[in-house]
Amino acid sequence: MNGEWKARRKPTQARAIATWDAIVEACAQVLRDEGAAAVSTNRIAEVAGVSIGSLYQYFPNKESVLLALADREVETLRDNLEALLRVSGDLHAEVVVEQVIRGMFAMREQHVLLMRVAQADRDLPDMASRRVAVAESLRDMVRRLLARRKGQVREMDADVVSFVIVHAIQGNLQAIDGGLEPWFLSKDELIDEIVALVVRYVRADPPAG
Amino acid sequence: MNGEWKARRKPTQARAIATWDAIVEACAQVLRDEGAAAVSTNRIAEVAGVSIGSLYQYFPNKESVLLALADREVETLRDNLEALLRVSGDLHAEVVVEQVIRGMFAMREQHVLLMRVAQADRDLPDMASRRVAVAESLRDMVRRLLARRKGQVREMDADVVSFVIVHAIQGNLQAIDGGLEPWFLSKDELIDEIVALVVRYVRADPPAG
Amino acid sequence: MNGEWKARRKPTQARAIATWDAIVEACAQVLRDEGAAAVSTNRIAEVAGVSIGSLYQYFPNKESVLLALADREVETLRDNLEALLRVSGDLHAEVVVEQVIRGMFAMREQHVLLMRVAQADRDLPDMASRRVAVAESLRDMVRRLLARRKGQVREMDADVVSFVIVHAIQGNLQAIDGGLEPWFLSKDELIDEIVALVVRYVRADPPAG
Amino acid sequence: MNGEWKARRKPTQARAIATWDAIVEACAQVLRDEGAAAVSTNRIAEVAGVSIGSLYQYFPNKESVLLALADREVETLRDNLEALLRVSGDLHAEVVVEQVIRGMFAMREQHVLLMRVAQADRDLPDMASRRVAVAESLRDMVRRLLARRKGQVREMDADVVSFVIVHAIQGNLQAIDGGLEPWFLSKDELIDEIVALVVRYVRADPPAG
DNA sequence: TATGAATGAGCATTCATTCAT
DNA sequence: GATGAATGAATGCTCATTCAT
After folding, report:
1. Is the CB of A1 under 7 A from strand E?
2. CB distance from C152 to chain D under 8 Å?
3. Angle, alpha carbons A186-A114-A58 (nearest 5°)
4. What pLDDT does A106 receive?
5. Domain ranges of chain B
6. Please, which residues bridge with residue D153 across strands?
7. Which residues, 6+ apart, have CB-to-CB distance to D95 below 8 Å?
8. Which listed residue, B170, C110, C149, D49, has the most CB atoms within 10 A of its CB?
9. How confident is the model at residue A1 (pLDDT cuts 50, 70, 90)?
10. What CATH code is assigned to C3-202?
11. What is the rounded average pLDDT of the residues A54-79?
C-alpha cells in the first residue's frame, strides 16, 4: 500500500493516453465480466493488452485504477444527467418524474459498473467521495427539476426532499439489479409505482376540510 | 473453491455445536472489528480458538462460513421483526410507520453485520438468497402492518406497495450509513421525512372534485 | 515491510524445528554459495526444500530470516571463543596472542558468513545489535586473556585496549578476506606481524632512562 | 546484466561531459541521501534530470554507474592524501601519526560514500579493484611518511608494516562509523589510543639488556 | 476428532533494460 | 542525440485448503 490513490499522472502523449485509457477500460471490463473478485492488476494489464509494468507507470497501485474508473463513470453519469435535464423541458410533473426514473434506471443499467466499483472497495477511503459525488449529482438534478415546477408541487425543503427522492428511487432500483426483482412485478410496473410514490410525495396537499 | 456452499452439516453433539457456533461468532467478530478485508479462514479459526483443521471439518470453505453467519443474522432479523409486529398493536398509521422505520433503522444499526456479509461476497451466488430473505421478511412485515389498517389506507396491491416501501426506506437508510449523511439533515429529520414519504404514498386519496 | 524482525516463534515440535533449521541453513547456504544478491525468500525456500508458505509460517519477512541466521552465527562464535579461552591456559603472552589471532582468523574463515549477513543488510536496524554482539564477545575474550596476564603487560584501561586490539585485528583480517591480500605477504607472515603489533602495544614499557 | 562494467565511454564533448557528470553526481546523491537500497537507474536518471534513455547511452548498466562513482571517489581520496603528505612536513612521529589518523578519519567521514559504494555491490567483481586502489593509496601514504622518518623508527619491512598499520586504523575507524562506538571511549580518546598502538608498533626497540 | 504443519497458486509491486519515435 | 513509453522477469508476501499425525 502506498498512500497515494491518484493516478501518477494523466499523460498527454497520444500513445500514452491510449495506454491509460486501455487500462481503465480493461478494469471496467474485468469488473463487469468477471466480477470484483477477479480484479487484479495482472488481469487488468492482461486484458488491456499492456504489460504490468506499464500499468504501474500510470497508476501507483491497484486502488488508483479503480478510483480512475470511478471518476470516469462519475463523469459520464453527469453528462447523462445534463442531457436528461435538457430534454425534460416543461412537461407535466408525472411525465417528467417517470422520465427521470427511466433515465436513472437506464443509467443504472449502464452504470452498474460505477456501483460495483463504489462497493468493490468500500474500505478505500477515497472511494467515499465518489459515492458522495454520485448522490450529489442525482440530487442536484432532482432539485432543478422541482424548481422548474414550483406551482405544481407543495411548499417544501428542496434539499431534504431531493435527498429522500433520490435514495428512495435508488433503493428500489438497487433492489432490482441486486437480483431481488420479484415475480409479481415487472420492471415497468415497478417504475409506474415509483412514479406514484414520488408524485404523491411532492404534490400539493388538498385544501384542508 | 469447491462448489459446496453449505456447511458440511449443522452438528448435533453439544461440543460440536459449541465449536460450530464459535466459528460463526468469530467470523462475525472479525467482520465487525477488523473489516471485511481481514476475514480469512486462518484468522477466523484463530479468533474462534480452534485449529484451522477444525474449521474445515465443519465448513467446506470460507464462503460457507459467511453464509452460515448470514443465516444466523437473517434469523435474528426475523425475530426482531416479529417482536416489532407484536408491539405495534393498533396504533395510528403515522405512528406505526414511524415506529417501523425507527425499528428498521435500529435493526440496520444492529445488523450492519448482515449487510456487510451480504455485500462482502456479492459474487457468491448463494448470498443472493439471503438478500432475498431479508427483503422478503421486511416486506412481509410491512404487508401485515398495512393489512391491519385496511380502513386508513387506500386500495392497493399489497405486494407491490410493500416492495416499494421497503426499498424506499432501505435506500434512504443505506444512504446514511454509507456515509452520505448530509449536513442539512439530521437522522431524526430524515426519519420524519421518510415517514412523510410513506404516509403520503399509502393514505387514502381525497375524494375527487 | 512489517516492523517485526523477529522470527514468528521458535517452534517446538520436531518436524517444525527441522523446517525452521532447514530455512536458516538454506539462507546460510545461499548467502555463502550464491552471494548476498541471490538471497530471496523464494530461493531460500527452494534450497530448504520447503514451500514458500512454510517459510512465512516461521518468519514474518525476509529480514527476520537473515536476523535468525545472524543469531545462530553469533551463538557459535561465542561457543568458539569459550573453547579458545579454555585451552589458552597460562601460556606466555606472545604465544597466546598468536593463538588468539589464529583463532579469530579461523573463526573468520568459518564466519565469513556472519560478516556477510551483518553487511548484507546494513540498513536493517536490528542487524546493528548483532554487530555489537560480535564485537562485544571478541572484546570480552581479549579482556579476560589480558586479565590473566596482569604481570606481563603494562598498566592500562582494559576496555579501551581490548577495543583497539579487537578492531585492529579485525581490520587486518577483513583486508585479507576482502581480497586485499597482497603479493608481498603470506597469511602466516601477516599473522606474525599482527602479533607483533599487539604485543608491542600491550607489553610493559622499559624503565625510563 | 551485461558483462561490461565500464562506462561506454567517457565522452569528450562539453554537453555530453556535463550529462555524464550529472549522472554520476546523481548516483552519489541518491546513495548519500536515500541509502543504497534506493539506488536505481530510474531514480538516478530522475535526480540527474536526464531521461533513462540518456543514462543508458553513457552507461551500459547500473553497475557501471556505481563503478564510475567509485572511480571518482578514489580520485578525490588520492588528492586528499597528497595534500596531507604535503603539509605533514618534518613533524615528530607521534604528531604526524596523529595527523594521519585524523586525516584518515576526516576522509572517512567525507568518503563514507566510497565505502558505501564499495560495499553496496560487493558481489560486483570489478568493485574489488577499487577497494584495492583505496588500500594501496593509503598504504602508499604511510610508506612515504615512514620513509621520511628513517631514524626515528625501527628497522622493518615497509610494505608489511604499512599494510598492518593501515588496516589496523581502518578496522578501528570502521568500528566507529559502523555504530560500534562504545560508551567508554570518545572519538578523541580512541584516536589517542590508536596513535599509541601505531607508535609503539614502529618505534625503535630499546637496546636489549 | 482435533491439530497445525505444509502447500502453492496467486497477488501487488519494482526495476533494469530496450527501442520506436 | 535524446526521450520516455513499454517490457516482463523477479520479488516479497498472503491465504484457502489439504493431510499426516
Report:
1. yes
2. no
3. 160
4. 80
5. 3-202
6. D203
7. none
8. B170
9. very low
10. 1.10.357.10
11. 92
**Mean local confidence (pLDDT), D197-205:** 89
Q: Does A191 touch chain B (CB under 8 A)?
A: no
> For all residues of chain D together, what is the average pLDDT?
85
D39 touches chain C (CB under 8 A): no
Distance CA C166, CA C174 (A): 12
- Residue in the block written with cell 606474525: C192
- Asked whether strand F has any atom less than 7 Å from the CB of D51, the reply is yes
| Gap between the Cα atoms of D101 and D108, Å rounded | 10
A24 grid coordinates? 481503465
Distance between first and last Cα of chain D: 65
In angstroms, what CA-CA distances link A50 with A21, A41, A45, B37, D127? 11, 11, 5, 28, 38
Q: Please name the member of D169, D170, D180 whose beta carbon is closest to the beta carbon of C131.
A: D180
Task: With beta carbons less than 8 A apart as the criterion, state whether D4 and D61 touch.
Answer: yes
Identify the bridge partners of residue D203 per DSSP, sorted by sequence position: D153
* Interface contact flag, C184 D123, Cβ < 8 Å: no
pLDDT at residue number D112: 77
CB-count burial class (<10 Å; 0-12, 13-18, 19+) for B199: middle
Of C36, C174, C182, the CB nearest to D163: C182
> Strand E nucleotides below 7 A of a protein CB?
1-20
Contact yes or no for C96/C147 (Cβ under 8 A): no
Q: Which residue of B has its CA nearest to A181?
A: B132
Q: Is there a contact between D140 and C54 (Cβ–Cβ < 8 Å)?
A: no
- Contact criterion met (CB < 8 Å) for A175 and B167: yes
Test the D interface: residue of C176, C180, C195 with most D CBs within 10 Å: C180
CA atoms of A105 and A170, how far apart (whole Å) = 9
- Interchain proximity D172–C167, CB inside 8 Å: yes
**pLDDT < 70 positions in chain B:** 1-12, 89-90, 120, 122, 208-209
CB B197 within 8 A of CB A156: no
Residues in CB range of B18: below 8 A, 6 or more apart: none
* pLDDT tens, position by position, C40-87: 999 999 999 999 999 999 999 999 999 999 899 888 888 888 888 887
Residues 60-119 of A with CB under 7 A from strand E: 60-62
Q: Answer whether residue C6 shows pLDDT above 70.
A: no
Strand partners, B88: none
The DSSP letter of residue C60 is S
A128, A161, A178: residue with CB nearest B131: A178
